[in-house]
Specification:
single chain; mainly alpha; 2 strands; 2% strand; disordered C terminus
Length: 276
Amino acid sequence: MLARAMPESLSFLVAKGRSAEARAPAGRYDVELPPAPGVKVRADRWNALAGLFRGGEWLHTLLYWLASFGGLLLVYGVATWLPTRMRGEGYQLGSALTFVVLFNPGGIVGMLIAGRASDRFGAPRISVLWFALTAVGVFLLSVHMPLGVTLLVVFLTGVFLNSAQTTIYATVSVRATPDSRATVVGWTSGMGRFGAVFGPWLGGRLLAGGHGDRGFTAFAPAGVSSMVVIGIAALRTRQASPGGTPQELLTAHWSRNDGVRRAHPARICLPRQVVT
């Protein structure tokens, strides 16, 4: 259903020679078609990967990988141990399961809010803010509070935690060129999967070692670290491209050029295969 409903990347359509098909969404969103590619070069996966480390790109690549690692560590670590930890805090089983029910819909709401906010204020800014709020929310989960307050904190933590990781993908996709975007986002997501394994393992080790009283305090630093590395990467990009275009400065807002409303490149050029 999503594959049929989402518009295809304009760059992808033009690159495949389907310019006529690309004109419809271009007119709908008031954007210009990207130029047709010149000489086509056969894709080389290893050359594309090496491109992530050429020049000064290696540092940005490692920073985004670290941020992705911390993001998925939080997502899978907190989601896996949320019912167990909340029962350890003294809540009944029914309440602990209610926390999970609230946590996941919070992620849906968070995706919608994060997407709109990234379009307006820039994906890097929203990514930094989202991880900061995630760290605060995860830390508060280790504090025993009245049930009503805890339910609200769980929902808000789900809002920010589940969508913080997607803002990393939005950030790296904006910075990447069309021909390297799939590689950049794919490897960023792939390296984050190590965090997805480490998060549940860390929670299990804490419980097995009798340190369950630390709750989610051990997970909060992952949110702080992702916030810091995303901020460093964004600042380095700004310093390297003073006065550049919105894409070069990693902004993700709507801009007006000569009275024409133009959508941010990440919104129209990121292939739907990558978004999923």
